[in-house]
Design a protein that fits this description.
The chain is mostly helical. The chain has 14 helices and nine strands. The strands form four sheets. The chain has a three-stranded antiparallel β-sheet, with no helix packed on it. Strands 1-2 form a two-stranded antiparallel sheet. A hairpin with a 5-residue loop joins strand 6 and strand 7. The N terminus is likely disordered.
Length: about 400
């Protein structure tokens, strides 16, 4: 009754189409696929990043930016099990998800001494952050958070006011991408463990600089901003994975929603909430009539079809749910919540693909490199998290 009443109110007062959470979020196929992927991990361990265009996972060495997502996925199912008791209908009882998450994470531990993933230390740390949510006293997870945060903090340049994303041949070319907003969370976790306030200061300075230089007047985002490392001045604004330098790459826009909502959640600095609202407004205002998130909002419609990005859909949905949670305006919060449900429903209709090894298809890893129409480990991770979040808020029911 609570869920249906909520949807009716949204339709009446916000004028937003009120869809229900898709049943597939809670299908037994979800844990079954995660267990099958865990059982298929190679030895020495490699992790799934994306699939072939026929749905088979491709595995990559741990020193890859996405390697934290699959080990974090069993933790996400462990969290699901906390709110949904295992039943034959949900298959959550087929594995000890906490044990699987801990086992899958061990391949990341050597990366603590150093790796080639630049700013993506936060993504690598995801399973250890998930572990600390279960057991804050876990020393292995604490050590990982401290080590990865040290690597990330070492990339901070106080003249630029950011942590460097990608290394460049010319060290004065200081490259920062919008994705880096998602790695700032790591610095807060490390500050909580160590008491080192400088880590929080680095994160906030980076977010402040990103607000200033990555966000366009209409709330859209540039993917890449290049700075001069010795003066801090902006050299160039461009894309690497979007359609053009002036277009809006949807996954980058999704990272911005999530990242700024999280920064407000962590600091309560009003500017971060304002920015999260701005980037969310652009995203939601530019969703096509069919509700499917395109890989770039400005990519041409011809030749059709313009590829979707299921990962951008799920990252934005999780970001919108977080934004709804921290939003101080109830109408805004309700709108963000229903929009997240609508996006999830639309992409499920398109990309739920039972024969595939991934949960979702229709991901776009890198369209300029012709890497599209795949499943993605990160899209699947957020698909599970969105489903659990909706149950936690009383907006969906366990099966």
């Amino acid at each position: 009754m609570r869920q249906s009443a909520f949807l009716v109110l949204l339709t009446a007062f916000l004028g937003v189409s009120a869809l229900s959470p898709p049943a597939e979020l809670y299908s037994p196929i979800v844990p079954q696929k995660v267990l099958a992927t865990f059982n298929a991990l190679p030895n020495p361990v490699k992790y799934p990043q994306y699939t072939t265009t026929t749905g088979n996972w491709l595995y990559f060495v741990p020193d890859t930016w996405t390697s934290g997502f699959f080990p974090a996925t069993p933790y996400a199912l462990n969290a699901r099990q906390k709110v949904c008791p295992p039943t034959p209908g949900n298959a959550l009882g087929i594995a000890n998800w906490l044990t699987l998450g801990r086992s899958a994470s061990t391949g990341l531990i050597p990366l603590e001494a150093g790796n080639n993933q630049g700013h993506d230390q936060g993504f690598l740390s995801f399973p250890f952050t998930e572990e600390l949510a279960v057991n804050p006293a876990n020393t292995t997870a604490q050590a990982a958070i401290k080590a990865f945060s040290k690597l990330l903090a070492a990339r901070f340049n106080p003249i630029v006011g950011c942590t460097r994303s990608w290394d460049t041949a010319d060290p004065t070319d200081f490259t920062v991408i919008i994705d880096n907003m998602m790695n700032l969370d790591l610095l807060f976790h490390a500050a909580d463990i160590t008491g080192n306030q400088t880590l929080r200061d680095i994160a906030m300075t980076h977010a402040d600089t990103t607000m200033k230089n990555h966000i366009r007047d209409d709330g859209s985002t540039w993917h890449v901003v290049e700075y001069n490392s010795t003066t801090g001045s902006v050299i160039r604004k461009r894309t690497a994975q979007g359609y053009s330098d002036n277009s809006t790459w949807s996954r980058g826009q999704s990272w911005a929603i999530y990242g700024f909502a999280n920064m407000y959640n962590l600091t309560k600095k009003p500017d971060y909430l304002v920015t999260a609202r701005r980037v969310a407004k652009y995203f939601l205002d530019n969703i096509p009539a069919d509700g499917i998130i395109p890989w770039d909002f400005n990519a041409p419609l011809v030749p059709a079809p313009r590829p979707a990005d299921s990962s951008a859909a799920m990252i934005s949905s999780m970001g919108l749910l977080l934004l709804a949670e921290v939003e101080t305006n109830k109408s805004n919060a309700d709108y963000y919540t229903q929009s997240a449900i609508n996006i999830t429903q639309a992409i499920t209709t398109l990309a739920w693909n039972v024969p595939w090894q991934s949960i979702l298809s229709n991901g776009t890893v890198n369209a300029p490199a012709n890497n599209e129409l795949t499943g993605t480990a990160y899209g699947d991770y957020y698909y599970i998290k969105v489903g659990t979040e909706l149950i936690s808020r009383g907006l969906a029911k366990c099966t």
